[in-house]
Fold these 3 entries.
Entry 1:
Amino acid sequence: RFHTTTGSDVFSKIIRGEIPSTKRYEDDFCIAFDDLSPAAPVHVLIIPKLHTRGISNLFGSGAEDEVESALPLVTEPINDAEVVGKLFAAAARVAEAIGIDKTGYRLVINNGGDAGQTVFHLHLHLLGGRELT
Ligand code: 5GP
């Protein structure tokens, strides 16, 4: 299911190091980096190192299309639920490392145009560092 082809979206380019980013965390599966236009004092994006457009592409009826690895690294098939689970686990680690796990934080996934999704590579927003309305 996961091929070693390359994603052409901006986040796949960040994964491959073709576009610079301020990294907060990285492992074989995912990478976390600061959002370019932060909406809060802490605004980190956590993305899988494989390309899928979003939640509806992962779990919806079109789930079989467009999932590909942005790097040759992730070549083993991985359970869809595990993809999302690993993103949330990484977000919790990043929040703890930054020191906002006690004050609180928000995790958001925008899916599709009405949600305001602008980058079509699945990503989890980690927001915190102030009281969020
Ligand atoms: P979305 O609205 O798709 O859920 O969120 C996309 C996010 O990616 C936005 O918050 C936007 O500021 C961020 N973003 C877009 N391009 C870049 C980039 O090249 N580098 C970084 N670090 N963030 C980006």
Entry 2:
Amino acid sequence: LVSRENTTKRSVVRVAGVPIGGDHMTVIAGPCAVETPEQTLEAALMARRAGASLLRGGAYKPRTSPYAFQGLGEAGLKILADVRDETGLPIVTEVVDAGDVELVASYADMLQIGTRNMQNFALLQAAGEAGRPVLLKRGMSATIEEWLMAAEYIAQRGNLDIVLCERGIRTFEKATRNTLDISAVPVAQALSHLPVVVDPSHSGGKRDLVLPLSRAAVAVGADGIIVDVHPSPETALCDGPQALTGSDLDELAHLAATLPTLV
Ligand code: PEP
């Protein structure tokens, strides 16, 4: 269903009217985690200023440590919905449990399935039935074929509005959080008709790498980028070191403005 074998056309996925794929390069930006109404609104305004047309933000955070901030749950979804009303930016947010899909879908414009859940098949199937587009991140140790098969689980349930997201893979390299597999973008685009976006924040794990990796995503022909921004990264409850802020945002806005296909 997601293969290019039976179609020459590449898909465009619309998230509350915002296209991902086709001639567009879509910027999705926002805080890694929803923390407070003020922080989320401020991050959303920053995202919009930087050229984003969709707002990201996690209310359910799948953290490596059980002692780390796990997200605000439904209270976070409500904050996101309020910020959408205020800014007009549709929401992309993660769901980590099949049992929560209906609830998250009642607030979200797009469901995100994170790297740790790429092969959570019950979750994929529930997302396939939720009536919302799905952003499917690549498992950090998954092959491209496994990633496409995960997308197939969603598609099989009748939902072809799927966007693939390359977010870095595990390698021996320790200088970055994960290794951005930039070659996965054209490979996945050749094998599948689905749009492919890049997450330069979770792959590099460092603020200084986000702009260079974003440029790499543009150069390789990605259909979009998904970027963490935060009004005060030093106090962020999740992944502050990779969040863009201040003048970095101007650079992202500059990148967005200078590329004719970047919306
Ligand atoms: C995220 O985007 O908030 C996230 C947790 O990403 P990943 O699943 O790629 O680690």
Entry 3:
Amino acid sequence: MDFDLIISNGILVTASEVLPAGLQIGIKDGIIACIGKDLPVSSTTKIIDCEGAYVTPGGVDSHVHLAQKNSPTGDGWETGSRSAIAGGTTTILAFASQSRDDASLYPVLEDYHRKSRGQSYCDYGFHFILTNPTDAILQTELPALAADHGITSVKLYMTYDAMKLSDRNILSVLLATRALGMTTMIHAESHDMIAHIIAGLERNSHTAPHFHALARPRIAEDEASYRAIALAELADAPVLIVHMSSEVAMSHVRDAQTRLLPIHAETCPHYLFLLSAALRPSPEDPFSGAKHVCSPPLRHHPSDLTALWRGLQNGTFTVLSSDHAPSSYASPLGKQLGMVDGIPRFSAIPNGLPGLETRLPLLFSQTPACLPPEQAKLSLPRFVELTASAPAALYGLAGRKGSLAPGADADLVVWFPGARGRRVVRQAGLHHGVDYTPFEGVGVGNWPRWTVLRGRVVWDADADVEGEGGGVVGEKGFGEYLKRGRGRVLVGRTGGVPRGMEVGEREFWL
Ligand code: DUC
Ligand code: ZN
Ligand code: ZN
Ligand code: ZN
């Protein structure tokens, strides 16, 4: 075979093993054609010499907010997808958000196609956010949209006035998505607990950014996570609880998994690396804490960080995503919305942090590729599983994305050999559309040297494209829309009997 590209002299990492040195990846027409030794080189074959560095699948970030109406100063497709490839992520799953008054999902889908078409540097798909799950949507539109447009997952909120669903509505969605073999993502925080606390804080004039963390305590995540699991158990439906931030909430997931319920969980780099102290004012800027406002909030205690790392190690978490949901800080329409007439009001600060570009380097830094083995928090295969293969499988892209195997899209990251990729994260070096990073000054042990998407080099850290040392060499519009298949349930199983019910009892009311 005449290969277009051969990735040579790298150490390939899959979700199950670190392969022996000396293997090459042969790429033809954007697909991994074979993995082998001494692959034939023709006059048109390009070769990437990895110089002994690790090669991992291109990142799959399954939780990304781009072009959202509720963050007017956030990232659009162009800047968000550009930052994805600069950080080694080749596939993103972003949200097409239904507003309460949208009676049909078709205009919502068209709107997001319009925002993304021709704009993307990486491949992308959509999840629907459902805020008005009518019978027509659940019974007629979702099946058709899954079959015709490959949208096989939805996200629901238990909090936020504009998005929150009742438990009854959540059950209706779960029963519908279960029948379709779809995965349902749930943002689990107790709306009423939080609303009550915010009202009290405001009554007492406690409105500075750091009160955001106090307003959304761990018990609010704990209660809602347990409730989400109970609803999923009653419906016998697979769910993924998104962006989990704390230990007790995570322990409910663990217990559910022990009972073989199909409960998946996700966490994000900010919950692993940052604490709520970041919401305190800096000496130069009393409002700087607004940069770290996200929900669930950053937590107070290092014990939560330790617990989350344990959850990544022991399989409680199925995926690690960025929850990239940025708003610019300096713009009055961004985070500064929370400064009302010179008085801070944390409840008006748009929630969410940028993190698409830094997700892979931050996590890779905690593997034996960058640390002595006894200090590493994750194995290299587990890094690949959490950041690429598991999200691809859970969301219906298995075999195509997130894998270094023949037949898969040739999406991969070549890291720097040894310590040559060490960096300090700086806003000036990032490619998103917002004006700060919450990881400013954090050291990472490596950075993608090349990102390859469907056989094309789209990021080359040594190219001096923008005169800034490193560059996006891919093209806007090269990223394609992904029609996804049915996802795989990766933990537990469906077909169980809810606790406290007898076999056959559900059938009386289903
Ligand atoms: N919380 C959300 O629920 N969504 C976007 C970002 C965030 O912090
Ligand atoms: Zn959320
Ligand atoms: Zn989110
Ligand atoms: Zn650049």
